[in-house]
Design goal:
It is built from 12 helices and 9 strands. 32% of the residues are buried. The protein is mainly alpha-helical. A hairpin with a 2-residue loop joins strand 3 (159-161) and strand 4 (164-166). 45% of the residues lie in helices and 10% in strands.
């Protein structure tokens, strides 16, 4: 059997079990890199050293090479599971991971500059990304019915990629999130402007009531806005990284951070923390929102709160209650 045939079998049986975004990434890597070089080879002819040398020759970042190796390993592992082949030569292929680039993190000042430059509904989308840390596919996948306005909470239930509805990235991604009153006001203002307001309608629907495409929004609106105000190159995930950085900056408990970011796990040494109470999550989130979201003055004009230093003291008052006492020190900034 050739690798092409094995890859076809993998695509037929294994790929449908993965999230849509992962499916597209695997198909792209198979068709662009793996099939052209190895597709015509018989599976038993593929040797570890040859694969290693091939990876080294590719004009790709080290992490991209790691991803190619991982995909090739998955294809061979599929062959072993279905008794198509007896060995997985990729087990012996060495590929260093390299150092991931440090994620871009925006300052509060930079986020405000971008927000000022954006028009609706893209400003509200970025507000949600910056104030709740949602992934782009989760923002696109929001329905009005996901918000509980009485409790001021949001339950992220789905993701949407290229118009296709799928599950969230992990089970932890479906944890409820607190919605600060200021952010709730901004989202309700968007509801007032929207043509689609039913609980089953998409929060950020296009004129036809369909989900928008996150890549188009990033390319046509968010990236140009960031360049115009001098912030530079950013992506959707920049806001999630920035949200995480702000949570650390205000001193949020590590378990609170995990649940607000909806990560499935934290390091084993951090797992001793008990489940964070809603008070702790809401307090930590509110400090971030107050630092990002403009406040209205008495005259009706909008200004930005100048808080260059945010301090948060976290106290566990009992095994059942976690209280976060936050203090914002307003100082003169150089903006």
């Amino acid at each position: 059997m050739t690798l092409d045939a094995l890859a076809d079998d993998y695509v037929e049986k294994e790929l449908p079990l993965l999230r849509y975004g992962t499916q597209q990434a695997h198909l792209s890597s198979l068709n662009r890199w793996i099939r052209p070089r190895w597709g015509g080879c018989l599976v038993y002819e593929i040797k570890p050293i040859e694969v290693e040398q091939w990876l080294r020759s590719l004009p790709l970042a080290e992490m991209s090479k790691v991803n190619l190796r991982s995909l090739l390993h998955l294809v061979f592992r599929h062959g072993r599971r279905w008794e198509i082949t007896d060995v997985n030569p990729i087990d012996l292929v060495r590929q260093r991971g390299g150092r991931r680039s440090i994620p871009r993190v925006l300052s509060v000042h930079d986020m405000r500059l971008v927000l000022r430059e954006l028009i609706e509904p893209y400003r509200t989308m970025v507000l949600i990304a910056a104030c709740l840390g949602l992934r782009a596919s989760e923002i696109i996948g929001l329905l009005w019915g996901d918000f509980n306005w009485e409790d001021l909470t949001l339950l992220v239930r789905r993701s949407v990629v290229h118009g296709r509805v799928g599950d969230t990235k992990t089970e932890a991604s479906r944890l409820p999130l607190p919605v600060d009153p200021r952010l709730a006001d901004a989202i309700r203002a968007h509801w007032q402007r929207s043509l689609h307001r039913e609980p089953y309608d998409w929060v950020f629907a296009n004129r036809k009531g369909k989900p928008r495409r996150q890549e188009n929004i990033l390319r046509r609106h968010i990236k140009p806005a960031a360049v115009r105000v001098g912030v530079g190159k950013i992506g959707w995930h920049t806001f999630r990284h920035s949200y995480s950085s702000l949570l650390r900056r205000v001193g949020a408990d590590i378990k609170v951070q995990q649940e607000l970011l909806r990560h499935s796990t934290i390091q084993s040494t951090m797992n001793v923390y008990t489940q964070a109470m809603s008070e702790g999550k809401r307090a930590a989130n509110s400090v971030v929102v107050r630092s990002v979201l403009p406040s209205d003055t008495c005259s009706g004009s909008s200004i930005l709160v100048d808080t260059s230093e945010l301090k948060c003291v976290v106290n566990a008052v009992s095994a059942e209650r976690l209280l976060i006492v936050c203090r914002a020190e307003k100082t003169m900034s150089g903006d």
